[in-house]
Amino acid sequence: MIKAKNLVKEYKDFKLDVSFEIPAGYITGFIGKNGAGKSTTIKLLLGLIKPTGGSIEVFGIDSCKLNDDTKQNLGVTLADSSFANSMNVKQINNILKLMYKEYDEEFFMSKCKAFGLPLDKKIEDFSTGMKAKVRVLIALSHKAKLLVMDEPTSGLDVEARKEILDMLRDYMTEDEERAIIITSHISTDLEGLCDDVYLIDGGKIILHEETDVIQSSYGTLKVSDSQYEKIDKNYLIKAKKENFGYVCLTNQKQYYLENYPDVVIENASIDDLILNLAGGNRV
C-alpha cells in the first residue's frame, strides 16, 4: 500500500531520512515528539512536497505522480488544512458529491447530524472539536482504500474520540484491503487502534514494533542506584537517571519479572517509548 525507501527530505535545520512499509489491512501509527518528522512524512506521502532523495510509493506509484483517479482512493485528514472556513456543511457536501465518484452522501450527512454539527453555520464559527469531526468525516465519506490521518482526534473530548476511533475500526472491517496511517499525540488512541507503530526521533525511525508486542513484552523497571549496579543489563534498551535511581526500558519484561521479584516493573506504554527512546541514556 505504502513503501518508502531511503526517503530523504532536507531543510536548513532538519533532515528526514526514513524507510518504512505499510501493507493492506494494517493500521499503522507514527509517533514521536513535536518536530520529529511525522508531518513531513505525511506531506511526502501525499506528494505535497518533493523528497530530496529516495522514494515513496502509494499504490505502487510515485507519490508525486498520483493522478486524479488514484487520488479517489485517498482519504486525508490534515491538522492544518480543510475546506474554506467561510463554507458550511451543506456546501461541503455539495462539493464532495462533485469530487468523489464513490461519495456516500447519506453517511456524511447522517454522521454530521449525529455529531451535532450545524449544517448552515460557517466552519470558521465551529469549535476546534467540531472542525476536527468535519475533517474526519470528509476523509471517511468516499470509500477510500487508504486513510492518511494527521492528528485526527486532536481537540476532541473522550466521547467524541471514541466515536471517531470506532468509525475507523468499522472502516477497516468493511474491506480487508484498506489501510490507515495515523499520527497522534494521544497515545491511548494508538494503543487501542494500531496494529504497529513507528517511532520517529530527529528525522529517523528509531523503533518499529507490533502494538501487541509492546503491550506484552515491553516494560519499565524502576530501580535504585544499588539495584541498577547489580541488575542484568543485557536486556535493557535504555536507562534514564532519576533522583531515586534509574528508569529502564526493556523488551524482555518477563525475564525481569521472573529473576528480579524485588524490582518495580510496569507495563510500558507508547508514551514510555517516546520518553525513554527519544531521550535518556543508552545502556
From the spread of the alpha carbons, the general shape counts as globular
Q: Helix content range of the residues, please?
A: 25-40%
Lateral strand order in the biggest sheet: 6-7-8-3-9-10
Number of strands: 15
Q: What sequence of helices (H) and strands (E) makes up the elements?
A: EEEHEEHEHHHEHEHEEHEHEEHEHE
What percent of residues are in strands? 25-35%
Provide mean pLDDT, rounded: 91
Return the structural class. Answer: alpha/beta
Count of helical stretches = 11
**What does the radius of gyration come to?**
21 Å
State the low-pLDDT regions, or none. Answer: none
Distance between the termini: 36 Å
Biggest sheet statistics: 6 strands, mixed
List descriptors.
6-stranded mixed β-sheet, alpha/beta, 11 helices, 5-stranded antiparallel β-sheet, 15 strands
What topology does this entry show?
Elements: E1 2-10, E2 15-22, E3 27-31, H1 38-45, E4 53-58, E5 61-62, H2 68-71, E6 74-77, H3 89-99, H4 105-114, H5 128-140, E7 146-150, H6 158-174, E8 179-183, H7 187-193, E9 196-201, E10 204-210, H8 211-217, E11 219-223, H9 225-230, E12 236-241, E13 246-250, H10 253-259, E14 264-267, H11 270-277, E15 281-282
Parallel strand pairs: 3-8, 3-9, 6-7, 7-8
Antiparallel strand pairs: 1-2, 1-4, 4-5, 9-10, 11-13, 11-14, 12-13, 12-15
